[in-house]
Amino acid sequence: MTRILFLPGAGGSADFWKPVGARLPADWPKHYFGWPGLGHQPHDPAIKSLDDLVQLAVREIEAPVDLVAQSMGGVIAAQIALARPSLVRRLVLCVTSGGVDMAGLGAGDWRPDYRKSFPNAADWITAPRASPPLPVEKIEAKTLLIWGDSDAISPVAVGKHLAQRLPNARLEIVPGGDHDVASKHANHVARLIARHLG
Hints:
Rossmann fold; alpha/beta; globular
């Protein structure tokens, strides 16, 4: 069975995906990432940017994997799928931005609330950055997009936009799902992921 790497969002906790992972078959190999310096995670002076997190994840990949990613983790997953397509078998992007114009698609600014919740998080995570859009049309991996219909941080419009641009994607919308759809609706999300990865 292909190894699954679970990538959290800017909350940084390796625990984020564990409720979903616990509902997937026990014999599926799983690795849960935490992001140093984000959320309440301990800082690592070597991690100074999103690119450093991409490299951190890539170092864990020795053979093709499935990437299951939340929010900011989806940007990391998309970058890996673009840079190392032979190493990504399947992709799950949950309420992510995927390197698209979020404000133009109606997304709210998450930074003020994030800084209140995580005052000790690394400064770089909330610094304004002009990242170039990702050429997601070039992602080859079969992709499952999971969105909640009540998410103000990554609205359904973002999921629909990615579904139109990704050549091999399917969008699933979870009724009542917010930005924490994967943890609040773990049973539903796990069923969708199991079907996609199985």
